[in-house]
Amino acid sequence: MIQTNGLTKRYPRVTALDGLTIDIRAGVTGLVGANGAGKSTLIKILLGLAPATEGTASVLGLDSARDGAAIRAQVGYMPEHDCLPPDVSATEFVVHMAAMSGLPRTAARERTADTLRHVGLFEERYRPMGGYSTGMKQRVKLAQALVHDPKLVLLDEPTNGLDPVGRDEMLGLIRRIHSEFGISVLVTSHLLRELERTSDHIVVIDGGSLLRSQTTASFVEATASLAIEVTDSDTHPDGAAALAAALAERGVATTPAPGRQLRLEIADETVYDTVRDAVNDLGLGLVRMERGRHEIAEVFRSAAPAGVGGQAGDGTSVEVTR
Ligand SMILES: Nc1ncnc2c1ncn2[C@@H]1O[C@H](COP(=O)(O)OP(=O)(O)OP(=O)(O)O)[C@@H](O)[C@H]1O
């Protein structure tokens, strides 16, 4: 679907993409990176809306630098920022976008009605968009990306500004774009967890460079860890420290985590038995042994040069910060 080779984009004061080489197949792919990682820049180059400084990009086998118009005819694009004219209705707008994509007027009207229904806009589609909620605007932006029945859609931060319910609905819609209509999706977010739920494949970029590209299943596996909490006892007034030492003797490294917990990598399934036996031998109580996940910040650190380490987080926050 998408290939880039050594793709670089330099602005006068910042390098937005730095030798990025990726190969994205059919399906739903999540592109995750902190704000400023280069996600929007990549999308603009893929669509032929901005030139690369160096390197090449192709979409559906077409060259982004040369065939931008042909690419845009077959690809839907949902931009990140608010871009809807406030004084026209969703129906008028999406019909217009469908006609711009080359659909005859009648087909444009029919496709618009179907697509707006599909994204969950009903009576309100006849009202001016200036009065819409953020969630409704995101749905219109998604509808205009889908109306010409593209082979691929590029969705730039589609959950931006949505409340938790709105996010869930949008993620469900994105999943169905592929499962029901067979349209491939590249969706960006700075939230790893939402992309894990939605995508078959995850690409992580930082500072315009590739950090990881792998299937979601292997990504989640590779970033899995175990959080352990134990009681203290008279013999071991600091139970966590005693367990850390006992596990180290058994060849299992741990790091301290918030809430007097320990965290360790799940190298293989035998680690559960090792922990159980160590806790039992020390005569401690096992309060918690829970599979957690790293924060995305740790994924970033684990891809950084050796020596850049850090303490494990609580496994619940996955928002990217720089
Ligand atoms: N037209 C421009 N001129 C100069 N610098 C730019 C321009 N567009 C983007 N940048 C810079 O390039 C870097 C990458 O920006 P980009 O918008 O691609 O990141 P992003 O990952 O999409 O982040 P966000 O989610 O915040 O949009 C940022 O440092 C940004 O400030």
From TrEMBL:
Belongs to the ABC transporter superfamily. Keywords: ATP-binding, Nucleotide-binding, Transport. PANTHER family: ABC TRANSPORTER, ATP-BINDING PROTEIN. Pfam families: ABC_tran. Residues 2-232 form the ABC transporter domain. It comes from the Bacteria. CDD domains: ABC_DR_subfamily_A. Transmembrane segments: none annotated. InterPro entries: AAA+_ATPase, ABC_transporter-like_ATP-bd, P-loop_NTPase. GO terms for molecular function: ATP binding. It comes from Streptomyces chisholmiae. This is ABC transporter ATP-binding protein. SUPFAM superfamilies: P-loop containing nucleoside triphosphate hydrolases.
